[in-house]
Automatic annotation (TrEMBL), chain A:
Keywords: Membrane, Transmembrane, Transmembrane helix, Transport. The chain crosses the membrane at residues 39-62, 102-123, 144-167, 187-215, 236-258, 294-319. Residues 98-315 form the ABC transmembrane type-1 domain. This is ABC transporter permease subunit. One of its GO terms (cellular component) is plasma membrane. The keyword Transport applies. Signal peptide: none annotated. GO terms for biological process: transmembrane transport.
Automatic annotation (TrEMBL), chain B:
This is ABC transporter permease subunit. The chain crosses the membrane at residues 14-36, 117-136, 142-166, 187-212, 267-288. It is found in: Cell membrane. Keywords: Cell membrane, Membrane, Transmembrane, Transmembrane helix, Transport. It comes from Paenibacillus monticola. InterPro entries: MetI-like, MetI-like_sf.
Amino acid sequence: MSDAVLDKQVKKQKPRKSRVDPEIGVSLSWKTLKIQKQLIFMSVPIAIYLIIFNYIPIWGWLMAFQNYRPARSFGQQEWVGLQQFKFLFADETFLMVLRNTVAMSFINLILGTTTAIGLALLLNEIKVKFFKRIVQSISYLPHFLSWVIAAGIVATSLSIDDGIVNIVLMKLHFIKEPIMWLSEGKYFWGIVGASNVWKEVGWGTIIYLAAITSIDPSLYEAASIDGAKRFQKMRYVTLPGIKATFVILLIMNIGHILDAGFELQYLLGNGLTVDWSQTIDIFVLKYGISMGNYSLATAAGIFKTIVSVVLVFIANYIAKRLGEERLI
Amino acid sequence: MKAVTKGSSRFEPVVFHTINSIFMLFVVAITLYPFLHTLAVSLNDGSDTLAGGIYFWPRDWTMENYRAVFISGTIYHAAFISVSRTVLSTVFGVFLTTMLAYTLAQQQYIFRKKIGMLFILTMYFNAGLIPNYFLIKNLGLLHSFMVYILPSLVGAFNLIIMRTYIRSLPGSLTESAKIDGAGEFRIFWKIVFPLCTPVLATVALFIAVGAWNSWFDTFLYASSDIKLSTLQYEMMKLLGSTMSTNNDPSLLAGNQHNQAQALVTPASIRAAITIVTAVPILFVYPFLQKYFVVGLNLGSVKE
């Protein structure tokens, strides 16, 4: 019986063609709850699960305003206000870690985006379907492997004894003797950037290639008639055609600007490169889990989350003003 | 003069396509070389590898590295844990994600937007490592197998992919079932779920790869418990030992008795485990390629 009522509601909504605001037809009342009880049973427990694992921990943010000691009960904790944050921003290590995080993020974002778009443009020019498919399949491969495997591969390739990078560079006479890539801080950002490109460039092309395929072919024909050459078509038809995709991905990535990645830096970093390799996540891990300074580590984590959320909203707002597609 | 321009425009495509093809071969070579190298090292005698000069063909063939991996109780158990967590996460994750996505795809559902927003926010919003650690601790999940399954059951990105796909299904398919008086769960399970095959494959692949590849949860929540170690975590420990060129005694201990015949080094063991861990993925993903390409594009559709 309840389903019949539901049915009536669906029909009532139909002429409105869903996009307008489908919620207008249904208001929160006991009757609706009763009609939709099956949907509620199917979804609300999962929502509660989500709240437990993703929102309840926010309670832990209180630790950042305390001088938290695990032995004390909640009532006994000493409240210190913003002292942890003040300490954080006066701490040279944290500022260095912040610099490393932002720098590696930017390197990853810029290198990652340009190489993915570049490879997508070139893949799009390959006319032999079979060859194109093979290249694509192989280029996705590293994406599916863990950072542990990738870090192992990077370490092996850069090894001083027998690493392929040193061997090739020496054979080409770019360098006279092998470089200790992983022992010098100045190379670290570049290594992280290059490793990310190696692992993710193929994966990054998927969305751009799909965007390129959806460009109206008549635009290319018109451009040809106007005498546009291959690179002019890329510049004036393809690139504008993938602009919306580019903007959406940019907004998504800007929110993650303080996520420079954690695994690669943690796995490849060592005592010699620590000034260049440590990111906020490693800082949190070190201060929090290893040294037991939970309050300071939580403060660093809060800073990271707030910056991400603010950046997403700013990027979203700018995209809206520019008339581009938005995320939220 | 005219002839020159004409000639160059005729040759331009040939030149371009040649350079482009060579460049693509270069991309393929850079992507594949490390795997061929790892494969070669894994099939080469450990002490011989130390002498250098192994590229993509073994010099001193041996199966000793793989034998060492497979007779090691630690690795065997770690493989068992890795497979278990992958299978369980995938089965439960796919089912719950699809079920939730189905409810969120129903235009008239009152909590549709609220629950959707709760999930989308988690893509940008995270309480952070320390609060999460305390949550896991307070829930009693430290050093428990469930810590591999529970925290990452339903992810926002997979949910968006599923919801977008379910929305695109024609409504007429479920309408007749509704008229016949079928309940929501029945419609979901009998009609919608089977229709989702392509995107189920995508989501299953994403969840499975994520579970198979993760090591950080072991490191953070169960590192002292050898019974909960995974293949990736064992490899991570070996990575540390090869980079500092110390032998990891715990792993090589199992092979003491055959050290007289062949030296199994951490580097060669790591190569063998890398191949063992990478092979399942290598065999699965090419077949799912057409699915995940579609799935990934569904995920980029906003709200």
